[in-house]
Amino acid sequence: MKKLLKWLKDPAAMAALAGVAAAAVVLSVAELTGAFFTARATPVIALGSTFIDFTPPWMKDFAIATFGTNDKAALFVGMGLTIFLLACVLGVVAYRRWALGVAGVLLMGTVIVASVVTRASVKPLDAIPTVLGTIAGLVVLRLLIAPLWRLKSWPEAPADTGAAEPDRPATSRRRFFAAAGITVVGAGIAATGGRLLSAARSNISKAREALQLPAPAKAAAAVPAGVQSPAAGVTPWITPNGDFYRIDTALSVPEITADDWELRVHGLVEEEVRLTFQDLLDADLIESHVTLTCVSNPVGGNLAGNARWLGLPIREVLKRARPKDGADMVLSTSIDGFSASTPLEVLQDDRDAMLAIGMNGEPLPLEHGYPVRMVVPGLYGFVSATKWVVDLEVTRFADSKAYWTQRGWSERGPIKTMARVEVPKSFAKVPAGRVAIGGTAWAQTRGITKVEVQIDNNPWAEAVLSTEASLITWRQWSFDWEATPGPHYIKVRATDGTGEVQTDQRADPVPDGASGWQSVMVTVE
Ligand SMILES: Nc1nc2c(c(=O)[nH]1)N[C@H]1C(S)=C(S)[C@@H](COP(=O)(O)O)O[C@H]1N2
Ligand SMILES: [Mo]
């Protein structure tokens, strides 16, 4: 502590603090003024999004494996540390050579502006918050650093001279710390104000709540009794919207009102089609239970969810557009520049791929694609489930690459057969005697016909399958185990509707989905 205090008296350390205060001003002024521009225009969101766009497959895989659906929070923490360190360095540089410091700040500002204006559907004027923030940051940096230069040239006054001497280094130091502190606190207030202001100016949540979904022309098949595993603790067969996993590249949820939404269907088609939200409301909608799965889901992971989706079959839209011969892919693009490549035939067959507007009886939640997303049974989300979708280009795999394919993931993504143990949990301690093992398995479009459990090195034994609702939803299972004291391993594997047993070949999620058998260690007491 003493050392820290002594170190803080060093003008260079004070300059570093000035840099941090100036950076806080840059960000908060941009946040506050950014409330009047698109959310994606603020420096942190734009920089973070640009960083995500440059994420190689191994890094995405690592981030999801390490942080799961908290990957965005982890990114913000990482960015915060990076900005903090850069600000310290720039503060010291500005103190030593002001012109160089200014050049550094302007360079940073330029990088941020570049990352703002290159975002999808961002206008050049959206750079204004960053420009204002950078100017304010430079002014504050100058105001904080100038007294430090004087400080350097003053000899330390003897402590016992008594009378107030305004220019004593101790006094100017105190003034400096007060000024820097006030700046940081003020920046915090401005940033919070900016947040509140953006939230108040956005009425997207209200519009969503006010939206009345139409009744489907074709209702979902009734969910048969017995889909839920009898083993206590297995995930609900229908995932509530609030618990549904969320995976996307969007640091701030794109905001499109239903009124502004329009879908353009173009490319290798006889007729370009444009759809408004009203067109969707007026169409014959269908409702269907579909289990979505993320390609980044590790063996035994929980990046999968099952919901009742309401939407228009994409088949119907394609019928109107009439794809030309030679087309084999539809590239769907979201308002924020994500894209997915889906085989054309998958969108035309009877599996009911849809432009969804409803999820479990509610309008799509904002994070799950409001107002319209794609839902395609049987394919991982990264090649099919485009949220906030605004564009369908009928094209060819040979001509176009989707977002994750450009970054090293596969161009196609059929879902691999997977069984997972949900109870008991990994490393759980359970009492000896009868233990209910249970979990979920999926092989969308093929269905699950068998789940087997292996305890330690005993022979594989068949689990009891819960009722099957359809081939495009997951299927639960349970297994009664007579548990004896000691450590035990529980392994699980599924067989799909084609008779194929889930492979034991371990594969990482990159490039086209994880495989292998899950093994759970439990201790019986
Ligand atoms: N616009 C957009 N849509 C997207 C993504 C994205 O990054 N941006 N990610 C996809 C991926 S990888 C998956 S697994 C699903 C996840 O959908 P969910 O968040 O509703 O579960 O959305 C897909 N749709
Ligand atoms: Mo995904």
Automatic annotation (TrEMBL):
Tell me which Gene Ontology terms the entry assigns under biological process. sulfur compound metabolic process
Task: Give the highest taxon in the source lineage.
Answer: Bacteria
Domain Oxidoreductase molybdopterin-binding positions: 251-404
The protein's UniProt keywords, in alphabetical order, are: Membrane, Transmembrane, Transmembrane helix
Question: Which PANTHER family is this protein grouped with?
Answer: SULFITE OXIDASE, MITOCHONDRIAL, SULFITE REDUCTASE
Tell me the InterPro entries matching this sequence: Ig_E-set, OxRdtase_Mopterin-bd_dom, OxRdtase_Mopterin-bd_sf
Q: Where are the transmembrane segments?
A: 72-93, 100-121, 127-145, 176-197
Q: Does the keyword Transmembrane apply?
A: yes
SUPFAM superfamilies reported in the protein's UniProt record = E set domains, Oxidoreductase molybdopterin-binding domain
Q: Which GO terms describe its molecular function?
A: heme binding; molybdopterin cofactor binding; sulfite oxidase activity
State what protein this is by name.
Oxidoreductase
One family from Pfam that matches here is Oxidored_molyb
